[in-house]
Write a structure and sequence with these properties.
By secondary structure, the chain is mainly β. The protein has seven helices and 25 strands. A hairpin with a 4-residue loop joins β19 and β20. The termini are far apart. The relative contact order is 0.11.
Amino acid sequence: MKLVRPFLLLGLLLAGEVAAQSADSIRTIGLQEVEVRGQKKWLNAVPQGMYEQFNPDNDFEQIAGFASLVILDGAAGDDLWSDSKKGCMRLTLQADSSYRIWWDKPGGGCNWVGMGIGWDQWSGKNLLALLDSAAIELKVRLPAGKPAKTLPLAFGFEDYSNRQAWLGMSARWVVDGPIGAQYAHIRLPLQQFNWEEQGADPTNIKQFIIQFEAAGEIDLRHIRLVRHTGINRKQAKAQLGSPRSFIPWQQLGSDSIRLSWDQKALYVEAILQAADGLQNTQEGSAIWNGDAIELAFAAQPELSSRPRARFLFSDLHIGISLGADVRAFEFRTQKTLKINRHIEPLGQSRYRLEATLNWTDLEREPWSLPGRYLLEIARDQGDASGRKVQYRWNSGEEEGFHTTPSLWGELLIPDLKSQK
């Protein structure tokens, strides 16, 4: 027993020496198991010091693992550039870290006016996983002038192959508009950019671009990537039945329109307001230039959740005249269509329309496969001199649905098998 006490004292002295030495010394000394356990917590601190970005809880701000969410917020340094040739544009960083942007494209004689932000030191950014779950958000206000529903802007992403995907500005992208003296948010869903049509690569993005048209002045507070999973298009869910399937009544201005169909035909019903009566003297491709209804739709369900900017051969764009002469026209094939049409006065400048278009005359099969079909409905209001205004179901105040299916809404046909 007397020999044990000096041995324990020697062990304690040795342990004190070991604790005072470096990690390298610890690895070279033959320690007993008890001494190794005593230094375990200190040894685990070494890799955390070496890898400062280590985040085991994954608690950094991110969307689908992408963390470079701030594109512009305050001074951007070399990440920001602007085109100020011929004095068409001025970009000034203000005391509150916002940017005052002034531009005058026609007055300065510039062919192009814009700015770009490389963000994250111009590194290649992989946005692929974000396309259906994120949006670009800009916080803007008008320092002077009347409030505006929209701005003369377009937005683009450029990849490192110099290909670009674009999205035009629209009032539907303003979350809390109109844009005025108080900051409003513009939210641009990534899925709405024309990636596929332009061949842009979302896995290797170089910069975000803003293109300016006309003239104006805004304060820009920030540009960020934010979460966004909402539906960006109006949807009309079909109720399948016999003898007809149909969608609910849809409102366009002061008018209401409903579509129904069976295996034989597509039926168009409408309750219309026209203080001066329904007038349209046009025919052929000019049938839109008066009182009319236009339908644009896909004959096949969409395979991608992202809108497409180009027509398919199976898409149709039909005009139905509401004038005295019964006329219908298919704009894409430039063909006159057979139509059975009846208009009944309801009193107080109101009319009821019933029109029938046979699927065989349209050279299409009736909607039957479950899925999403692009659809747009428009009401042209005018008189004998031409169209005065057009009300659109999905695209609202944004022009161009007759050339861009990305502006259309959706017809949803349910899968009855999955509901059983």
